[in-house]
Amino acid sequence: xxxxxxxxxxxxxxxxxxxxxxxxxxxxxxxxxxxxxxxxxxxxxxxxxxxxxxxxxxxxxxxxxxxxxxxxxxxxxxxxxxxxxxxxxxxxxxxxxxxxxxxxxxxxxxxxxxxxxxxxxxxxxxxxxxxxxxxxxxxxxxxxxxxxxxxxxxxxxxxxxxxxxxxxxxxxxxxxxxx
Length: 179
Prior knowledge:
By secondary structure, the chain is mainly α. Helices cover 60% and strands 0% of the residues.
């Protein structure tokens, strides 16, 4: 059940129960073998296999080498698991932040587009089927409005100009604030 919830855990726990094979040299004589386990309620059958390792010297060394590598890999895997969990946590945080940032940007762009839409929606012009003279009069009124606006802007400019033409006596050799 835990492996289904966290598939990475199965990978990281794969070598936890690993026990290397014991290859021992036995001297001539009588030997007793004891088998132990954690099952006290039922009897269990075991098979003990005893082989002569003298006929497999290369295999014996290869087995010891590979099992040594497996044991060191188990230690590496334990260290890697903690590093992996930290990075996975950071990755999850970053992907969540990415989604939030993307959503915030989309929302801001949507708001911007709505504001732009307000500028592009022109008020409807009232059209009437009256004579041409009224159209000429309205054209004159709009021209008069433009002229009045231009005069007002020129007055504003002259006020600004007067303000900027103030001549202040400044001695360039003295720094400001020093008498």
